[in-house]
Amino acid sequence: ELKVEQNPLFLSMQEGKNYTIYCNYSTTSDRLYWYRQDPGKSLESLFVLLSNGAVKQEGRLMASLDTKARLSTLHITAAVHDLSATYFCAVDHSGGGADGLTFGKGTHLIIQP
Amino acid sequence: NAGVMQNPRHLVRRRGQEARLRCSPMKGHSHVYWYRQLPEEGLKFMVYLQKENIIDESGMPKERFSAEFPKEGPSILRIQQVVRGDSAAYFCASSSIQTGYGEQFFGPGTRLTVL
User: Fold this and answer.
1) Please, are residues A92 and B103 in contact by the beta-carbon 8 Å criterion?
2) What are the pLDDT digits (tens) for A74-99?
3) What are B11-64's pLDDT values in tens digits?
4) Number of H helices, E strands in chain A
């Protein structure tokens, strides 16, 4: 059974600081997804990481994938309040796309002024 | 291009009633997925469908739950004889294999409350 673990599950940080969220998964997969969810809202796709060594950046967020270590990271640079949300990583069951996703439990991120 | 549409957005049912949740995928998408999210939890995969076919239902409870994606019309997730434990947010996602990497786009969700 595929397992996806995120840590930390809760993170409170100050504006302007840097931090990293970690996502480990238990079986081979070359596809990893990061989503953002605001309270009471749906999921917004942030990044799709397709291969070992993939790195993608959007604004203050940068995601990377190491398929050998089965690890992805989501790095936040100089955090701002608007980034407060829950962040999920997800891995597809087969690793080949077009399959159901297994999600981590999410990281609840609170950024304080 | 409209996104994934779900209705109703909120649904209240009494124990023992039936709940029907609808999902219209993005235009051009032929793959539909249903997920359930309990409070303070991540999403749990339930079922993956293509038109008129269930591809993977490994996450569906064995009883009371069913899903379909007919040739015409939206995908339907049906829950019979609902119980309080069915209270959750149910999200539908769609994808197109033509994108090459199967990125899933999520609808706004249906929040089911069982009294």
Assistant:
1) no
2) 999 999 999 999 999 999 866 555 67
3) 999 999 999 999 999 988 889 999 999 887 889 999 999 989 999 998 999 999
4) 0, 11
Pick from B51, B11, B13: which is nearest to B32 by CA? Answer: B51
Burial of A37 (0-12, 13-18, 19+ CB in 10 A): buried
Average pLDDT for A57-76? 94
Residue B93 vs residues A83, A85, B23, B103: alpha-carbon distances, Å? 23, 20, 8, 9
A44 close to A29: Cβ distance less than 8 angstroms: no
d(CA A3, CA B86): 23
Contacts of A97 in chain B (CB under 8 A): 97, 100-102
Q: Which two tokens stand for residue A83?
A: 């980034």
DSSP symbols for B55-94: EE-TTS-SSSEEEE--SSS-EEEEE-S--GGG-EEEEEEE
- Identify residues of B whose CB sits under 8 angstroms from chain A CBs: 31, 33, 35, 41-45, 47-48, 56, 58-59, 91, 95, 97, 100-109
**Interface contact flag, A42 B106, Cβ < 8 Å:** yes
Give the sheet arrangement for strand B19-24, strand by strand: B5-7, B19-24, B75-79, B65-68
Neighbours of B2 (CB within 10 A): 8
